[in-house]
Amino acid sequence: MDLEAGPGSLPRVPGTGRPVPEAESALVERWRSAGGELVELLSQVRRRCGGVAAFRLGPVPTVLVTDPQAVQHVLARHPERYVKRSHRARLLIGDGVLAATGAAWKRQRRLLQSQFTGTGMRRYEQRISEAARTTARRWEEYAGTGQTFDVAEEMRRFALDAIWRSLTGYAIDDVTERELAAVTAVAAVLPSLPADVTVAEKAVAADLARIDAVARHAIDAARGGAAGPDGPGLLHVLIDAATEHPEYTDRLIRDELVTLLAAGHETTATTLTWLHLLLDQHPAAREQALAAGAEGSAQRRQAIQALVHETLRLYPSAWILPRHATEEDTLGGYTVEAGTDILICPYLTHRDPGLWRDPEHFDPRRFTVPDGRPAHPGGYLPFGIGPRACLGVQFALRESTVLLEHLLPVHRPSFRSTPTKARYGITVRPDGPTPATLEPSLT
């Protein structure tokens, strides 16, 4: 996104709608001078102008969309009018399904779709459970020794193991885990890299080389017939696709592999880290979830899923979703000109007091009681909605729930210190370490 200031205001264009309300340029200049987070500017723009609001960061007008009906209009009803252009993570994931567009995106998504719904998900249940049991055993060791560990790193380790097992059929080994830390490193610096692609690539060349080496080794092993104890994984699906679809070159298989690795563990790890931090502040929520039913019961699982959903409400996996208007349209009663940049912001929609009661408060019961959450589908979208909604929603929710079913009844992290703020990059991450020791659960 171009952050250079531009003169003027949104022009009125012919159409059936009114001009989009625009925040005054002074507000943008004050934010720029203060060096604030983008979310702070967006929050002020929404407060001043409402759920469809315009502002200028450069010569191209930008429209912020947080109103649920307008969100659904853009993402679900008319995605052909509001398109993705270039994904911020393209440097890392190349032409993977998250960054792909047009016919290539449709083809790639169709191939992967079946792997994350119904029968496809059942293939990965055992692998997710094994990753959760491995983490639970490690936590037993921490509890026995009183060792201090980093909760965020533990959540990353679990999520990476779960997706690696699902991709390859094997538990992740120490060397691979260490090398794939480069995925997290690149994702963390992407928002601050130079706009020039060549310069940006040089800045992370060493980390990209480490990722490529792991991907190349995994692809060669799978192509050679290697399959883990639970059989072939998602990587084998990609390799098999190449026999019928020549566009699945080694490079595209690499890009899809890295896409699944990055999207399949970064967001889940971040959500689980936030959840542990929130439970530290609201211990009653943990006890209420465990008291909802016996171990393994549907009632307890539903209550634990509510913990995850409420965490995702406050810290959605995709906190901001950029789009670009390809044609003039009427959005929420306002005329949006072709060429306008659109920012959907689930983070702000989820914290709208007009949609959510006491929105800054952590209250998982919103997701277990009638009328606890907005009925409109555009009011809760931690993974997006519409045709480009996250493919791995069910996978992420399942692995989060399974891990918590193992950990919550037994252990409670006691934090030595906690981050004081969030970092708004590709995901919303705690801005700092999360050292803790383990205490027995209060139940």
SSE layout and pairing:
Elements: E1 18-19, H1 25-34, H2 38-49, E2 52-56, E3 61-65, H3 68-77, E4 82-83, H4 90-93, H5 102-113, H6 119-122, H7 125-145, E5 149-150, H8 151-168, H9 174-179, H10 181-189, H11 197-203, H12 205-223, H13 234-241, H14 250-281, H15 283-291, H16 298-314, E6 321-325, E7 329-331, E8 334-336, E9 341-344, H17 346-349, H18 393-407, E10 411-415, E11 422-424, E12 428-430, E13 435-440
Parallel strand pairs: 1-8, 3-9
Antiparallel strand pairs: 2-3, 4-6, 5-13, 6-9, 7-8, 10-13, 11-12
Helix pairs in contact: 7-8, 7-18, 8-14, 10-12, 12-14, 14-15, 14-16, 14-18, 15-16, 16-18
> Residue ranges: pLDDT <50 for 5 or more in a row?
1-13
Which fold name corresponds to the CATH topology?
Cytochrome p450
| Structural class assignment | alpha+beta
Q: What gyration radius follows from the Cα positions, in whole Å? A: 22 Å
The strand line-up of the biggest sheet is 2-3-9-6-4
**Any idea what the CATH superfamily is called?**
Cytochrome P450
Q: How many independent structural domains?
A: 1
Strand content: 5-15%
CATH class term: Mainly Alpha
Separation of the first and last Cα atoms = 49 Å
Largest sheet, if any?
Answer: 5 strands, mixed
CATH architecture: Orthogonal Bundle
Helix percent reads 40-55%
The whole-number mean of residue pLDDT values reads 92
- Count of individual helical segments: 18
Q: What is the β-strand count?
A: 13
Overall spatial form: globular
